[in-house]
Amino acid sequence: MPTPHINAEDGAFAKTVLMPGDPKRAKWIAENFLVDAKLVTDVRGILGYTGYTKSGKRVSVMASGMGLPSIGIYSYELFTHYGVESIIRIGTCGAYQPGINLFDVIIGQAASTDSDWAQQFNLRGGTFSAVADFDMILAAYSAIVRRGLEVHVGNILSSDIFYDFDPDFWKSWAKLGILGVEMESYALYTMAARLKKRALCILTVTDLFLDSSRKATPEERETGVATMVDIALEIADK
Questions:
Q1: I want to staple 136 with a disulfide (CB 3.0 to 4.6 A). Which of 73, 168, 200, 236 is the partner?
Q2: Beta-carbon count within 10 A of 17 CB
Q3: Is 207 a catalytic residue?
Q4: What's this model's pTM, rounded to 2 decimal places?
């Protein structure tokens, strides 16, 4: 049954959903990586498709929008109304640590946050540690290593803030070993934990906080996303 934010019919989504942030990227993935992909939802321009991998495994791709509140809404509705069991976020990030280069892959083993989003779970002032599904981490790590790519596994930051007026804000997080920053994974991991589902975030590094002059071009970002899509589809195929 359609929800306030998804107008797909019952059974429209596969058990595994790949989730980029950008609706146009979801469309690009469906058209270039899936077989017989069909549009199943388009509320507010957030596009979702279901098709098949080349080996015949049913899989979906849907955009999350930007930020913890947005992915919190869509992951909740997919998990609770459409029978989705696993969501794999595929996105880009800025790296905090030396030794991480442009186009390296980061697997978010855990996600920290500067957001109050998790207060809804009434933790009485506690702090919830949001972590990925271990089997999915292992599968992604193995797939990346087989491709000969540089991979980093560890804690990432899901931030509410993109344009921070304190240019050094990130250094406090970097001192705690945070690998890089994005804006969604903490909410995804927490929602999966609350609903007893599975989630993973795979990121391509497109910005370096230690050298702001080096950034990926739009074309390079697309190539990096393509690698992540291949990895996510390999996990979904299992």
A1: 200
A2: 29
A3: yes
A4: 0.96
